[in-house]
């Protein structure tokens, strides 16, 4: 197995290693152009390969030049997709449970890319997991993703909670405060009042 890396500062890294039965058998040190045997069984192979300086120079050159060239070529092919970021659209909806007066708040995250996202509920700035639920992270038709999480709280403590979101598409983490749910009883009274007024008229 081998690979190479091109870092942001322009430096390069690479590795070449062979394994046996799921364990590392021998590795190549490209700086010294020698082989390292982490297990005694590899020492014979180590001595044999260390005695091939031309081959070891080729491995070093390959990891630092040819492998990097191929890496840059593949990155250019997929640059648009690999570097694409779409920030999540985050909304918080809530409702009051009529049975016990508790509130359920749902934090919805939609249309974000890439897939990796960190979303959680916090209380007083600390991650909070009690009475929380979450859905599956799923794809949208356009290749972006959506996700949701919910929490059930005592309305007296609403101001202590936030929906916390971190994603590559955001310049900084997002913290959304919880809003007071729409009062269903008031709405019902308003509707009944309108109906009565209409009948009187």
TrEMBL record:
InterPro entries: Ig-like_dom, Ig-like_dom_sf, Ig-like_fold, Ig/MHC_CS, Ig_C1-set, MHC_class-I_related, MHC_I-like_Ag-recog, MHC_I-like_Ag-recog_sf
SUPFAM superfamilies: Immunoglobulin, MHC antigen-recognition domain
GO (cellular component) term, any one: MHC class I protein complex
Domain of life according to the entry: Eukaryota
Keyword Cytoplasm: no
Boundaries of every Ig-like domain copy: 88-177
Membrane topology: Single-pass type I membrane protein
Keyword tags: Disulfide bond, Glycoprotein, Immunity, Membrane, MHC I, Signal, Transmembrane, Transmembrane helix
Subcellular location: Membrane
Protein's GO biological process: antigen processing and presentation of peptide antigen via MHC class I; immune response
Keyword set includes Disulfide bond: yes
UniProt record similarity statement: Belongs to the MHC class I family.
Protein name: Major histocompatibility complex class I-related gene protein-like
Taxonomic placement: Eukaryota, Metazoa, Chordata, Craniata, Vertebrata
Protein's gene: LOC113431167
């Amino acid at each position: 197995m081998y690979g190479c890396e091109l870092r942001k500062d322009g430096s390069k890294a690479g590795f070449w290693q062979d394994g046996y039965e799921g364990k590392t058998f021998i590795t190549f040190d490209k700086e010294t152009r020698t082989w390292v045997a982490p297990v005694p069984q590899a020492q014979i192979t180590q001595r044999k390969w260390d005695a091939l300086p031309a081959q070891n120079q080729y491995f070093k050159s390959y990891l630092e030049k040819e492998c990097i060239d191929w890496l840059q070529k593949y990155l250019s092919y997929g640059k648009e997709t690999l570097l694409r970021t779409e920030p999540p659209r985050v909304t918080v909806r809530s409702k009051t449970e009529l049975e016990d007066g508790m509130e359920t708040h749902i934090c919805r995250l939609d249309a974000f890319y890439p897939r990796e996202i960190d979303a959680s509920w916090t209380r007083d700035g600390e991650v909070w997991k009690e009475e929380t639920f979450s859905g599956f992270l799923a794809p949208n038709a356009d290749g972006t993703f959506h996700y949701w999480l919910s929490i059930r709280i005592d309305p007296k403590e609403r101001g202590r909670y936030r929906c916390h979101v971190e994603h590559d598409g955001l310049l900084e983490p997002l913290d959304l405060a919880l809003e007071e749910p729409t009062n269903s009883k008031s709405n019902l009274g308003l509707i009944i009042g309108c109906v009565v007024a209409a009948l009187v008229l």
